[in-house]
Amino acid sequence: MKDKPIKNAPLSPLYSYEEGMDFNAVERVIMNRRSVRSFKKEPPPDSMIRRVLEAGRFAPSAGNAQPWRFVVVTDPELLEQIERDTQKKTRFLMKFLDYQKSAWRRWLLKPLIKFITRFMPTQLHPIPYNLMRQIAEDKAPVFHGAPAMILLLSDKRGVGTPPLDLGICGQNMVIAAHSLGLGTCWIGMITVTMKMRKWRKFFNVKYPYELSDCLILGWPKRPFDGPVEREAQVVEWFDKAGKRTEDEGREVSNLKFGDRMRIPNYFSESQVSSGQIKFDPELCTGCGVCADICPARGLVMESRAVGKKKLPRLLESAPGVSLCMTCGDCRAACPTGAIQLLRGYNTSYFYKKLSQTPELKPPRRY
Question: Tens digit of pLDDT for each residue in 305-322?
Answer without folding.
Answer: 656 788 888 887 666 677
